[in-house]
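Problem 3 from the worked examples.
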Amino acid sequence: MQARRHWFPKAYADQVARLRVTAGFVMVAAFAVFSHPTRHSLEIGLPVSLLGLAVRAWAAGHLAKNERLAVSGPYACTRNPLYLGTLLTAMGLAAAGHSAGLAVLFGVLFALIYLPAIELEEQHLKSILPGYVAYAARVPLLLPRWPEGLGPVDFSFALYRKNREYQALAGWILGAAWLIFRAIWLP
């Protein structure tokens, strides 16, 4: 069996994986400066970003990092629900901020930083979690597919807290408040 070629050279992926947090700060700064929200953009973008945040929260409540293979909840639909949630949240906030430039900036950052990080994580998970290769063969990488027979949704608030996903909620609240403030007082 021939090994799959990697999307990105490993040295590049290793370098940029460490830039995820920095890229987040760049996005926050760009968001603060370049957003120009309107009532209409807030009505469209905030629900989309909130959906992304909900996907992240749902995923965090199913993830015991490096301990066991997560296959329940959103992990039955996509192997990377945290990244999918990040993508939805950022694109929703860019829409709420009424800024195509922010959407393009995040799209570029996602392609150049987050996709290589996903690939590195895939390699890591294949090496430490039995069953990951079979799981990856049946569950899509990023864009979700609703599986047949997805049963009741279990959720662990303990895992949610352990994964510190409340930090994303706090950041979203601050971002939404900034957009609303900016739309009302700094049109």
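Problem 4, a separate protein:
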Amino acid sequence: MKKCFMVCLLVIAGALLLAAGCNKTAGPVASARQKEITRGEKIFAEKQCSKCHVGAAGLAKAEMPGPELTSVFLAVDTVFIKAHLQFIELSEMPALDLTPAEIGALTQYVASMHVKAKADPQLKHPDGVCPVCGAPLKTADAAAQSLQSHYEGRTYSFECADCKRMFERDAGWYAEKGYLATQ
């Protein structure tokens, strides 16, 4: 019962944040956003979040298992992340004393974790960008791995199967407002 109540509150909080102008964001990592990501990473380390969350800083195992933070869902849904952090006392997470600015920075850092986990750090001379998460990629590699989709006469390449599935669920949005739309 408590879990159902908690989920309902998070959904309501997410809707309120969405109404306040926070929505799913996609776009190249601007320098201001990169500063927030870097600040969020420091806060993540200071608050010892990697004790519970795998995927953080390349950890394979956490002391106390919490959800993995490299999900493509978190990469594109900053409303959920922000609502969860604002109403953390309603979850099973330990209480964290976070300011609104810290919540914003942590939100950006968590949203960036998918690309950090999925993008190939050895990639040389990328010729494309994933329209969902913004990871650099080689379109030939994406084609060879069946990580492409067609929408309105255009071919889109993805860095992982999760991003491809996410795109295919809302191709119009990603085609219009995703990472590629700003290039």
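Solution to problem 4. The helical segments are 2-19, 31-46, 72-76, 78-86, 100-118, 139-144, 161-169, 171-177. The CA atoms of residues 23 and 140 lie 32 Å apart.
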